[in-house]
Design goal:
binds magnesium ion; alpha/beta; binds inosinic acid
């Protein structure tokens, strides 16, 4: 295990199970819509969601299209700043035919996803739902409930499986709690 990790919160086996469960629910909810001509667009929020997105898109059986957006709500370290900036946008002319499922690594204050959902609806998406691997509901600053949640976790700063602290630890194959000594300096 990496030396900066206090303990593993979700190991690889549990992560696979979580992703299989979510994929089955997405297939149940979207397969008919896709058969009837709508596109299921998995919208990965860079960078933290790439690992979750990669595994999820392989597990969902319904045909999907993928796209990427990059937003920032964090000033870098482990503390939230509040503002949401769009750094990379999607440019599609078929949004009216797209059922967008926003794929997020973790929901904390809820600001990123509540802003993004409103933005995508205004852009003309046929529907917008959200799927998060992790949720820290105790940290919510705005009222927001995701449509699909992998696991609710306590208020700890976690890294791995795509999640970072200062761009590090994204490639760890598990979700681990970062030692406080790493960021409380
Ligand atoms: P929100 O807008 O406060 O919900 O912020 C969500 C974003 O904050 C996530 O996409 C992550 O990039 C980041 N974030 C929140 N909590 C953690 C954490 O425990 N570890 C790593 N990143 C986090
Ligand atoms: Mg991040």
């Amino acid at each position: 295990m990496n030396n900066d990790i206090e303990r593993i919160l979700i190991d690889e086996k549990e992560l696979s199970g979580i992703i299989a469960d979510i994929a089955a629910k997405i297939d149940r909810d979207y397969s008919e819509r896709v058969k009837n001509g709508k596109k299921l667009l998995l919208l990965c929020i860079l960078k933290g969601s790439v690992v979750f997105m990669g595994d999820l898109m392989k597990t969902i059986e319904t045909p999907v299209e993928i796209d990427f957006m990059k937003v920032s709500s964090y000033g870098g370290g482990s503390k939230t700043s509040g503002a949401v900036n769009i750094i990379l946008d999607i440019h599609r002319t078929d949004l009216g035919n797209c059922d967008i499922l926003v794929i997020e690594d973790i929901i904390d204050s809820g600001r990123t996803l509540s802003y993004l959902c409103e933005y995508l609806r205004l852009k003309g998406a046929n529907s917008v739902k959200t799927c998060t691997l992790l949720d820290k509901p105790s940290r919510r600053e705005v009222d927001f409930t995701p449509d699909y949640t992998g696991k609710v976790i306590p208020d700890e700063f976690v890294v791995g499986f795509g999640l970072d602290y200062d761009e590090k630890y994204r490639a760890l194959p598990y979700v681990g709690i970062l030692k406080r000594s790493v960021y409380d300096k």
